[in-house]
């Protein structure tokens, strides 16, 4: 990664230019940097940006210059998945977010006239400014700190949406959350918001437990020391109603699955390396358990992001407790902190 001065296109009719106040670092940024996910180079990464609208195209009607916005991933906006409120299921979303250009093949960034690929996840927010389509911007309510609010665009809705939209936990129900990074902590917060009576957080890093309790965990398990499945069954006889696998570690999925009661549901949100095949206990599945995946919280960003902002206003989603800010020039240090887990959510301030 290097910090360079680039030229940004003027906005086309439905596009906006946003001055970035802060951008979270998400594990997908690391996956692209490491070549585990394809992306054309040279490129600007970053996909948890928030900032202020600085310029709008001639046909923009959803936001105005000066609005504070959180940016999300891209989607077509017109397929059945998008129109039913789950744009993460859009069949065109992977292409839109990973091609590095507009639909017509043009780039939004250049360096001395040479093309640079922007629009990473329809953002490229490791920057002072970005250009995107207006439909990927969500206006932010007052109060919430703009420099940290970009985290509401990817990792946090991924975890919170898995609980709110997929588990749909009822008050009094029980849930186990494996992996207490930003995604898992957001799932913990959503479980508390949903009125779950028992919220069990599991991680290999005991340094995460105090934070998990601050987000709402009632119990924590050190997976490096204790048997996760046995301990969860000790805490909740018969198993939990729901489990979230947010660690991305292969063995953790079967542990999450075995932690649920015979009619429980396990939701996979942790991204294991592409090509990973999971093993699931056959009898546990036969008894009636449900296993499903969930991308981006199965949510419409313009519905879920304002909900998450209200949770922050109520003190139920303290993103400032999980975030550590770095200057954009310290991007290598921030990426290293994300990779080794010493920081839960690094946020770059341009
Ligand atoms: Zn992400
Ligand atoms: Zn679509």
UniProtKB/TrEMBL annotation:
InterPro entries per record: ADH-like_C (IPR013149), ADH-like_N (IPR013154), ADH_Zn_CS (IPR002328), ER (IPR020843), GroES-like_sf (IPR011032), NAD(P)-bd_dom_sf (IPR036291)
Family named by the database record: Belongs to the zinc-containing alcohol dehydrogenase family.
Keywords, comma-separated and alphabetical: Metal-binding, Oxidoreductase, Zinc
Cofactor(s) the record lists: Zn(2+)
A Pfam family: ADH_zinc_N
Full protein name: NAD(P)-dependent alcohol dehydrogenase
Classification via SMART domains: PKS_ER
Zinc found in the keyword field: yes
Record organism: [Mycobacterium] vasticus
Gene3D superfamilies xrefs: Medium-chain alcohol dehydrogenases, catalytic domain, NAD(P)-binding Rossmann-like Domain
Domain Enoyl reductase (ER): 1-348
């Amino acid at each position: 990664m290097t910090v360079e001065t680039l030229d940004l296109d003027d906005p086309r009719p439905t596009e906006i230019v946003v001055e970035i106040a802060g951008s979270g670092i998400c594990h997908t940024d690391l996956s692209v940097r490491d070549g585990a996910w394809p992306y054309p180079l040279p490129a600007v990464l970053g996909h948890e940006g928030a900032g202020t609208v600085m310029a709008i195209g001639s046909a923009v009607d959803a936001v105005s210059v000066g609005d504070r916005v959180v940016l999300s991933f891209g989607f077509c906006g017109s397929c059945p998945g998008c129109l039913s409120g789950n744009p993460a299921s859009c069949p065109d979303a992977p292409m839109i977010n990973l091609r590095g250009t507009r639909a017509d093949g043009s780039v939004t960034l250049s360096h001395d006239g040479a093309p640079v690929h922007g629009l990473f996840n329809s953002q490229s927010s490791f920057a002072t400014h970005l250009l995107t389509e207006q439909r990927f911007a969500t206006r932010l309510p007052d109060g919430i700190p703009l420099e940290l609010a970009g985290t509401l665009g990817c990792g946090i809705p991924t975890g919170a949406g898995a609980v709110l939209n997929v588990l749909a936990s009822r008050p009094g129900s029980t849930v186990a959350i494996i992996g207490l990074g930003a995604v898992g902590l957001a799932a913990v917060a959503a479980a508390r918001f949903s009125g779950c009576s028992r919220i069990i957080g599991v991680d290999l890093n005991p340094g995460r437990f105090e934070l998990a309790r601050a987000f709402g965990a009632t119990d924590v398990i050190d997976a490096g020391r204790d048997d996760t499945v046995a301990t969860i069954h000790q805490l909740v006889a018969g198993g939990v109603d729901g489990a979230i696998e947010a660690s991305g570690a292969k063995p953790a999925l079967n542990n999450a699955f075995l932690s649920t009661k015979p009619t429980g549901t396990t939701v996979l949100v942790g991204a294991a390396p592409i090509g990973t095949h999971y093993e699931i206990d056959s009898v546990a599945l036969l008894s009636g358990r449900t296993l499903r995946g969930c991308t981006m919280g199965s949510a419409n960003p313009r519905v879920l992001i304002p909900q998450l902002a209200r949770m922050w206003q109520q003190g139920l989603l303290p993103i400032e407790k999980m975030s550590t800010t770095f200057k954009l020039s310290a991007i290598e240090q921030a990426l290293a902190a994300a990779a080794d887990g010493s920081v839960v959510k690094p946020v770059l301030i341009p």
